[in-house]
Every structure is written in structure tokens, then in C-alpha cells.
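For reference, the entry.
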Amino acid sequence: MRALHLVALCVLSQSVATQVMFARQDSAAADATSALTCIQNALGGTGAVGAVSSLYIKGQTKPSRDSGLRPIPGTREISVVFPDRYLRTDLGQSGLNSIVGFDKGVILSSPRDPDAKRSEVSAHQDFARQMLMRLPRKSAGVRLLQRVTSDSGRDRLAIEASGADGFRATLLVDRGTCVPIALQYTTSSGIRRVDLSEYQPFGGVRFPMVLRTSIGGLPYSEERVTSVELNTPAASKAFGGHR
């Protein structure tokens, strides 16, 4: 009984410490090191998150039930070999495919934007957003700041990411648990929000299994992750046909 009491006190103390850590950051943003550490600990530990050298994610995508925009359902595969190989492949049921990514200095995106610079920027920004949602850690060329913000009437920890060519994105995090709950960024069609839920562990790291996207507040699409592989050859194989 005494042992249970001590465990409860430890959990409560950790929660209170988390609240105090982020309590006085409403007025100005600060370096996100402490928040990032808290997030990584919540997802499996800084050691486990930092040890990921490659990542392969597979899932199913479909339109949201009440979406009037009708994105094409299909499968999504994300392959990453850190630090400079990234590929997101969306295979539509209708045969329409989309590839976004890069292999070191070579842009792999297809269909390719006629503007080479714009294609490069788009691929690198897509990579930065995907990693913020799925494996939050420091990345070259991306500055991370933390503050407290209001989200649907509740205080949230916000990790503000910024970088070259106007890159901006905000990762919203539960202040009590340090678990990421959503990513927000602005596109030409409006504010895009990806809600993250149903976390499950793979290789000692927790990943969101359901990602629901809305645009301008309207439901758009849903991704359900079916598998995650860390530090296996699966990610490297994706780049074999693009050399």
C-alpha cells in the first residue's frame, strides 16, 4: 500500500513539474529544448527517439465521411533514412499516384513541379512536417521555439517550427502528458490541421496511428497507420528504383 502511495506521489509530482515547466511562457516564445525533451520522454524516451536511424510507415488513407472535397482513397508509405533520404508515396485506388521526397541532393517528387526550386522547397517542407508529427526531434535548418497557446478553449503547449523559404508549422501538445495532439500549418487552401491520436509503441517509440486532416475547419481526410518499422532495411529499399 505504501509502495502504491509513493508511485502515485511520483506521478503527481511529474505532472505538476510539467505544468510548472511551461507555466510562464504565454507572453513570449523560448527555445524548445525542454519541451522537446518532455515530448520525447512521453513517446518512449530521448534515447529511443534519438536512436532511430531509419523509419518506414505504411497506412491506409480515405476521405472523411462528411468531406465535400473528396480526396482519393488509397495507401501511403513513408520511408526515411536519416538525415537526407525521404520519400512519401500515395497510391490512389483510381491509379493516380503522388510521390514527394528527395534522395540526398536529388528531388524524387512526381508529378514534378516545372519550377525546380519550388519542387525542392516543397519536398523538404513536407519532410519537416511529417517528422514533427511522427518523430519530433531537432532537424537541420528548422528552428523550434515553445510557448503556451489556447486551442479550443484549452491551454496547449505549442512548438513553433520555422525555417528557410517561409516554412512555418505548429505542433500542439498536451500540457499534462507532453503527447502531441495536432499539427497546424497554412496552405494556399487555408489552415490545415492534422489531429493525432491512438498512439501505439513500435521499437520502444510511440507513434500516432490515426491522423485526421481538416482544411479551414472542414474534415478532409483520414490516415490509419497499419505498420511502423524502425532501423530495418525496409526504408532503404524504397530508394532502389529512384537512383
Summary: The first strand starts at residue 30 and ends at 31. The first helix runs from residue 2 to 21.
